[in-house]
Structures are given as C-alpha cells and as structure tokens.
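Predict the assembly for these two chains.
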Amino acid sequence: MRARRQFEQLALPHLPALYRVARQTGGLQAADDLVQETILRAWTYFDSFAPGTNCRAWLFRILHNVWISQWRKSRLEFPIGDSEPAGFEPYYDWEPEFLDEQLSADMQSALDQLPAPYRWAVLLVDVEELTYQEAATIMECPLGTVMSRVNRGRRLLAQGLRPAGTAGRAPQVAKVRHR
Amino acid sequence: MMDCRQFREIADLYLDRELAPESQVAADHHLRDCPQCAGVVSHLTGMRTRLREHVRAQPVPPDLEARARLRIEPPARWFSVPAWAAAAAVLLVVGAASWMTLAGPAGARNSIARALETVSLRIGLPSEAVTLEATVLCRDCELEKRYGVRQMCETIGHHGALVTADGRIWNIVQQPESAALIEDQRMLGQKVRVHGVLYREAASVAVSSYEVLGQKAASASAQLGERVFAP
C-alpha cells in the first residue's frame, strides 16, 4: 500500500509531460494508450526504480520503449536506425538574410514533418528541458547521437517554419567571417 | 578566443547550457562582439519558445490521471487470501499495529503476523494435515527480494518461514512447537521436514513437529526442499 502511494506521488505529476510527448510522437489517437501503458509498466517495475533518482527521465525512457514497441507492431521498419546520417551540421549557413525571415509557418505541421529521431530529440531537450545525458539514457543512444539529433531537428524545424514559398529555397552556404 | 566558425559549431551546446565553463565564457565573449552569431542564438531561442508554447498549450485529457490511477493494481498479496478475508485481515492489522507500536517494532510485527494468522484460522479456511519438506528462510528477506518490500531484519531479527520447492512462501503459525523455526537464526537455510496443518489459502502452516534434514544449505535459496506431500 505504501509503495503504491509513493508511486502515485512520484509518477503521476509527470503525466501531462508524458502525454504531450506521446501525442507528438504517436499521434492523438495513440497518445492515451502510450501513456497508460507507460504508467502500467512503470508501476510493475517500480521496485527497480532507485528512490531519489530521476523519476521523470525514468518514465520518459519507459515511454520511449513503449513507443518503439507500438511502432514495431504497426510498421515493418525500425523507426530509428542505420539510415540516420551521422554527424551534425554547424550553422555556417545561417546568414542574416535567412535569419531575418519570420518563422511564420504552422508549428504543428513543421513538427509533423520531422523524422521520429529528430522529433524525439527536440521534444526531450527543447520542450521538456532534459539534459543531453538524460536524453541519451531515454533514447538509449550515445551522447554524440543526441547532439546530432538535436542539431538536425532544429535545422529541419527552422526550415519547415519558413514562410510558404520559401521552404524550397535552402539557405545559401556563405563564408562565415572569421574574427 | 572563439571565432564565428567555432561558435557556429557549438551553438546548440551553448543554447542547451551543455558547454564546459571555459567554453561558455568564451562563447559569451564572442557573442558580445558579434551580431551575426547573436542573431543565430536569437533565431534558435525564438524557435524554441514558439515550440514550447505550442506543445505545452495542447490540452491534456482531464481524466488522464484518474484513469492512470485505475491502472495501478494493488501489489501482489503476501498470502493468497480471498478478497474478503484480506479486507478483514487489513482491519485487524491496522488495529493491532496502532496499539502495538508501544511494544516496539518486534512486538508490532509479531502481533501483525499473529493477527493475520488468527483471521485465517478463525474464519475457518480449508485446512489439510500435511507432511512437507521445505527450506527455512527469512520471510521478510524473501519478500524484499521478490517485491521490494523493505525489511527490518537488521533491527528486529529474521523471521523464519518455509519455502517449498515451488518457490512459495508459507508463513509459520506462532506456536511453542514452531518457535525455533521462526526465531532461531541458526535455522535459516536449513532443510526441514515438517508435520502439521496447512492453510493453503492463507499460505500458512501450523507446525506440530519437525525434523532437520541433512546439512545447512550453502545457498539457501538455491536449495529448496521437495514437493508438498498431502496425505
């Protein structure tokens, strides 16, 4: 009984955050199921959670695993895999002309266009404000992979947010002035 | 000194405060003098703000928490007692625990154990005369191992129970005949043959006599006794 109360106090406050990410990664229909399954698994394995450690990251890790299981059931290909290009792209090409453009396009459709690994990274780091290390634990990948996913996610998001009509035009790769 | 090229390479880390302190300082310095790089940071933070606002503004189902609570089943019961008996036992335990706390933890625990046994015996659950072979192990240590229920054995001593080959834990009814099985720490890990009455649904056995078999098991949980024999 005491363990159940402890679990409720620790885990349930994170429900809204879990739902937000579940919705963006699994879609509106699946979000609820993803969250409920996450809570059920977390409760089942609650004795493996070390008290005093990061419950939020632990829950997100479970959510990520649940999401992968669900993905596997509905599709043939693995959502995160070798097709992911290595490395990240520094912002050499973000010249003032590019930066001056308003990010006016619809945020949800820009998010929807992000491939899953980049979307996860941006949601965990930008929205949920988790550290790179926490994100690496959650996504079960190396730190460097988190960094490149965050970078690519942001670049793609910025691209997707450019006003209609300019989306096709990539920023000019200009020489960056050295100081 | 950090230049634009270098800054553009660590811009994400800068934004996420993932830079080492020296790099953070160098980046701050660069940004003070470089409006172009400052523009990159401003673009990224503006995008992040919009992203956060958008995602956080989306409604969460109002009954999400209520439904999550329903999903959380009570933990596995120690004894396989039917629901109504368990409810009665809980009432007795609450009663026993509240006035026994004065007697100290050992007194409270024994009283709780007795209360549970009393309930099962009093409500006349089915019983069977048995001879069974089992290993004596500490009930609380086993429960901690299996369910993470914190044990107090360091403070109040181990509490012997019988573990049969199928891995089930059988509580030993407190009686003079079984006192050594429960209290004597040297019994832990011993394989025994026990004669008595088994209350299967209460997962308890009232021991009338027993024999110690063979040597003490080197690893108690690895050497469990043989099957329960019913007459």
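Residues 55-74 of chain A form the longest helix (20 residues). Residues 24 and 108 of chain A are 9 Å apart (CA to CA).
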